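Students often ask why we bother encoding 3D structure as a string. The short answer is that it lets us treat folding as translation between two languages. Here is a chain of 431 residues written in the first language.
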Amino acid sequence: MIDWSQLFPHSDSQRAPDAIGTFVAASVIKLLVVFVGYLVGVALLTLIERKLAAWFQDRRGPNRAGPGGLLQPVADGIKNFMKEETSPAAADTWLFMIAPALAFIPSMLTWAVLPLASPLPTPWGLIDMSVASLPVGFLFTLAISSLGVYGIVLAGWSSNNKYALLGGLRSSAQMISYEIAMGMSTIPILLLAGNVSLSAIVQQQVHMGWNVFSLTIAWFTFLVAAFAETNRLPFDLPEAESELVAGYHTEYSGMKFAMFFIAEYANMATVCGLTAALFFGGWDIPLTSWDNVPPFTILKTVATLLMFVTKTGAFIFVFMWIRWTLPRFRYDQLMALGWSLMLPVALSYILIIATASLGLDALGVSRGPLFSLALFALNVVLLFVLFGWLDRGRLISPSSARVSPNDLARLRARGLGAAHRELVTGREGTR
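And here it is in the second language, the structure alphabet:
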């Protein structure tokens, strides 16, 4: 594996602490700060989305709880705490109770390995700005994020409600379908980074440029799969109100219902943070190398943390923007998109990037700006080919028409003729 951190060596005074006590104390503090900040941030996201929805729809939104509606999340939390906890008589009680926790916990665990900022210098050494800097952090995110579907499926099954069961089944099929495409879309990143550590992937982007330019189609595939994995519009089929009442959490109330609600926003924030780390340089400040080289300072840590939060917030805005802009997919379109388009595109892209990387290595092009520029030119060509292939006037659906234009014109003429005959017959009958 490539150790990109060796490109920026630390001095002896700025290395990770060796004392186990320092490591434990730092881990506990980071755990508390990240956990509390994450929960508070998720609560504020509910207010932000309602305010953005009101802005998109030209209305005011929440404005009565506190100045400008800032205390609306507090009012919602108190309401959920005070609401009666109901449980269907025929439900599986234990599974019904633990399902919200099984949906909520994986979204929290994934944040543990995200590098939030540059290392923080302390008298005891450099403290890494992730709760757990695992050498297999990328694999950890894929493994843990896939566990959230168990809570949703168990919620649908244990409720003993047909609408909840259908929502759980839809969610399991949807997550399995798009999880494969999401995993495949990140393999080109590993080909460039040569490492599965998220910190190493960030350092690789510092040296080579952001992956969104070198691996544009991989980012596009990842983003679409992320919408489906988080059950957000236009992929919110598991909780389609017009069809399934509320989907897998139809029978839930009180704080158990709130945990599903929090888990949705937590998953969205996690995916946005992962997108920033994998494709947009993580905490790297663009157009400068000041933040990436020793000596590290508190100012660098704060600046890079703000940069990571800004990038994550930008993607959260995109998620909310899409929700209040696009309509919901049909279910057959959803599954066809995942299996008939996303998966072939991801697999083909892996082969193309692997071949291009081997070719550039054989030509003696080192992993740096020139390597990234060559991949960027390749992606521009591939984007024209891909969107030219997609923009053919056909729906991505097994139920879309696959007849020739002449046959379609003949069918339309036959339909118009039948309608005309019925109209004439109706007029004669009225006489």
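Translate back mentally: Residues 46 and 139 are 29 Å apart (CA to CA). Keep this in mind for the problem set.
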